[in-house]
Write a structure and sequence with these properties.
The complex is a heterodimer. Chain A is an alpha/beta fold. Helices cover about 40% and strands about 25% of the residues of chain A. Chain A has a domain at about 1-80 and about 155-260: P-loop containing nucleotide triphosphate hydrolases (Rossmann fold). Chain A has helices at about 40-45, 70-75, 95-105, 110-125, 140-155, 170-190, 200-205, 225, 230-240, 250-260, and strands spanning about 1-10, 15-25, 30-35, 55-60, 65, 80-85, 160-165, 190-195, 210-215, 215-220.
């Protein structure tokens, strides 16, 4: 579904990705974690083709995102959705117009009433029914994320990308977004890719987790095996992120087991 | 200071314009957006443009009188207004005002969209941002620039006439005769052609600076500032070059 092969990317002297290779399977939630500045967002931008690797290749839905012509990249992007950190909603439009936006431009065969029905359906799925006519500027942080998520799934994409879905949210709202992500993945059965530094939320929603550190993917496995790793960098990251100085790995297993 | 940065900026700007021509001008613009932009650029800029044009006309007449009175040629004021006003000042004033009003709006809007990841969102949704954001602004500004320039010319001539006749007590018919002898219909056409170039420059420079702005309020502010200054300077130079080609 998504395949990285020896992908390297540097900005000047700063190496952000260093020969990263891994594959994201279909129909699962894969999370990539790491410290701020570890290269998570750069990795995500390679998936959507906003950045090109200096070397290596990124294949998404059989499209070589580094070398394919622009039209092919746009066509592949239309098969994906993305939830941005701050939602990236258009303030001049209503909630409904924002969600309908990709339908208006990419699914021109749909009639206005079909579009409205689809918008109402996804708004219900993100637990904001009847909010079509609300202005975006009136929304809270959590609502913006939900509307952003509704826009990401409205075209029924094959892949949905999440860029720090919990950033800027309080713990309660953050937890609600995690629950919603889990629920939607089960409901829609599509491939989710989550980029986050929130380990608790990540372990809750993900089937597979990878950790980026100094440009390398130092660990990438199913959640149950990931949390049992003996890699000292990963264990240190896991402990620090759950804010338990003496946290043990079984406690993390409890987190995963208790919510999934 | 090395030449590397200006050359790199020029290269990036050229690529930006090329990408826009290739992907933004080869499809029909987003429905309804061109007229919306034309309305915003045209109507919102009109009051400030007409005010400035009016008072440039008054001052041009006053200074024309000061220049020609000592040699007994008060009537040449009309010729002076026709030559300097119609051929040069009105088009460049229109460009400066559109850059100041519509150009700042373009640069800051696009920069804010960049800052809030809305341009990335367009890309990820498979919608070409050059087409969605720049094409309507580009066509909109081209649509209104000739009209705004023509209105600026007539606004300036009207104020010049009022000052000449009612303040300086010059003969009105004679004043208009001299204006017409200096500013022929071809000069109006040249002024309008200039305005199309100015409109294209304002749009591309402002959108480019917004497109590649840094995030945050400081990034948006400096992108807007840089955009307007650059656009105004290019327009002034372009005005000279076109005048040199046409009138020299």
């Amino acid at each position: 579904m998504i395949q990285f092969e020896n992908v390297s990317k540097a900005f000047g002297d700063l190496v952000v990705l260093d020969k990263v290779s891994f594959e994201i399977p279909k129909g699962q939630t894969t999370a990539i974690i790491g410290h701020s500045g570890a290269g998570k967002s750069v990795l995500l931008k390679h998936i959507v083709g906003l950045l090109k690797p200096d070397s290596g290749s990124v294949h998404v839905l059989d499209c070589d995102m580094a070398n394919a012509p622009q039209q092919a990249i746009y066509a592949t992007r239309r098969r994906m959705g993305m939830l941005f950190q701050q939602g990236a909603l258009f303030e001049s439009m209503t909630v409904g117009e924002n969600i309908a936006f990709p339908l208006v431009h990419n699914h021109k065969a749909l009639s206005a009433s079909e579009r409205d029905d689809r918008v109402a359906e996804v708004l219900t799925q993100v637990e904001l029914p009847g909010m079509q006519d609300r202005s975006v500027v009136e929304l809270s942080g959590g609502q913006r994320k939900r509307v952003g998520l509704a826009r990401a799934i409205v075209t029924q994409p094959e892949i949905v990308l999440f860029d720090e879905p919990n950033s800027g949210l309080d713990p309660v709202t953050s937890n609600a977004i995690d629950e919603l992500t889990l629920h939607l993945q089960k409901l829609l059965g599509i491939t989710f890719v989550v980029i986050s530094h929130d380990i608790v939320g990540t372990l809750k929603v993900a089937d597979r987790v990878g950790m980026l550190y100094q440009g390398k993917l130092i660990e990438y496995d199913e959640v149950s095996r990931f949390i049992q790793t003996e890699n000292p960098i990963v264990t240190a990251f896991l402990k620090r992120n759950v804010h338990l100085p003496d946290a043990t790995l079984p406690a993390l297993e409890d987190i995963v087991g208790g919510d999934s | 200071m090395t030449l590397r940065q200006p050359v790199a900026t020029l290269g990036r700007f050229s690529m930006f314009c090329w990408t826009f021509c290739r992907s933004g001008l080869t499809r029909r613009p987003p429905p309804g957006k061109v007229l919306e932009e034309a309305y915003k650029i045209g109507v919102r800029s009109l009051p400030i443009l007409m005010t400035i044009a009016f008072f440039v006309g008054t001052n041009l007449t006053l200074q024309g009188k000061n220049a020609f009175e000592p040699i007994g040629g008060q009537n040449l004021v009309g010729m002076f207004v026709g030559l300097a006003g119609v051929r040069e000042l009105a088009p460049i004033i229109a460009a400066a005002m559109i850059a100041a009003k519509a150009g700042t709006e373009m640069a800051s809007q696009v920069a804010v969209m960049r800052s809030r990841e809305q341009i990335d969102a367009l890309e990820v949704m498979g919608i070409n941002p050059h087409w969605y954001l720049i094409t309507p602004r580009f066509l909109g500004i081209l649509l209104v620039m000739p009209a705004l320039t023509t209105l600026a010319i007539y606004g300036m001539l009207a104020s010049a006439y009022l000052v000449a006749v009612y303040q300086l007590n010059l003969n009105g018919a004679e004043f208009l005769d001299f204006v017409q002898s200096a500013a022929r219909p071809i000069d109006l056409i040249v002024a309008n052609i200039k305005s199309l170039f100015f409109g294209a420059v304002i749009c591309m420079v402002c959108c480019y600076n917004g497109f590649y702005s840094k995030s945050g309020p400081k990034g948006v502010g400096s992108a807007t500032n840089r955009a307007v200054v650059t656009a105004a300077v290019i327009c002034v130079i372009l005005n000279y070059l076109i005048s040199e080609i046409v009138y020299a």
